Amino acid sequence: MNVSDLITANQSLWQEYTQHRFVRQLGDGTLPDSAFRHYLIQDYLFLKHFARAYALAIYKCDSFSAMQRPLTALTGLLEHETSLHVAYCQEWGISEQDLENIEEDSGTVAYTRLVLDIGQSGSLTELYVALAPCALGYAEIGAWLPKQSFTARANNPYIAWIDMYAGETFQQLAVDETRSLDEMMKEISADSQQGRKLNRIFRDATRMEIAFWEQGLNKQ
Ligand SMILES: Cc1ncc(CN)c(N)n1
């Protein structure tokens, strides 16, 4: 099996995530300010726990060459996505100090601890599958939004966010992650017990991504 099989098996849920109302409103610039602020702040906490999960993936590797994959993803997350995120928060009047003092919302706790729990109790492949909807979904959103007729570049307060995920660095991280995961799953059959377990994990993480958008919308 491969990444494409996981997406195909969960197609409607995947579409609900990548084409969510929150995403569309980022595209046309109509997302309420309060929803975006809540999302941004919670996403800072999310990224911190995802960095821990990639570090856990390094720990679970048994060779230097295998460690290189999660290390590249972790470096991308720390040096690219998180630093852009902090700069972006500052543009929105949210300081690093504010970010350190926030309370985690329930959707943030649920998603991040689910992934860390899979990482602690499961295999490296299971952890990689739990991490996959994050990078792959946002890369798809970054590629999809600029092509939609409703997406506005002029006077859109969210255009820098879209550009970050549409940009080459993030797109390449998602390509690398797909390649690694395809390699890790190539001997696993989708209808084996292990294949079904991986599908369940992918599905749960995708559901958590939808809940993360909803968490933002609920703060309007
Ligand atoms: C909730 C969430 N999911 C995914 C991503 C993209 N790394 C993110 N920043 N935040």
TrEMBL record:
It catalyses: 4-amino-5-aminomethyl-2-methylpyrimidine + H2O = 4-amino-5-hydroxymethyl-2-methylpyrimidine + NH4(+); thiamine + H2O = 5-(2-hydroxyethyl)-4-methylthiazole + 4-amino-5-hydroxymethyl-2-methylpyrimidine + H(+). InterPro entries: Haem_Oase-like_multi-hlx, TenA_E, Thiaminase-2/PQQC, Thiaminase_II, Thiamine_Salvage_TenA. Its EC number is 3.5.99.2. It is an enzyme of class 3 (hydrolase). Pfam families: TENA_THI-4. Residues 11-217 form the Thiaminase-2/PQQC domain. Keywords: Hydrolase, Thiamine biosynthesis. Pathway: Cofactor biosynthesis; thiamine diphosphate biosynthesis. The keyword Hydrolase applies. Catalyzes an amino-pyrimidine hydrolysis reaction at the C5' of the pyrimidine moiety of thiamine compounds, a reaction that is part of a thiamine salvage pathway. Thus, catalyzes the conversion of 4-amino-5-aminomethyl-2-methylpyrimidine to 4-amino-5-hydroxymethyl-2-methylpyrimidine (HMP). Belongs to the TenA family. This is Aminopyrimidine aminohydrolase. It comes from Kistimonas scapharcae. The gene is tenA.
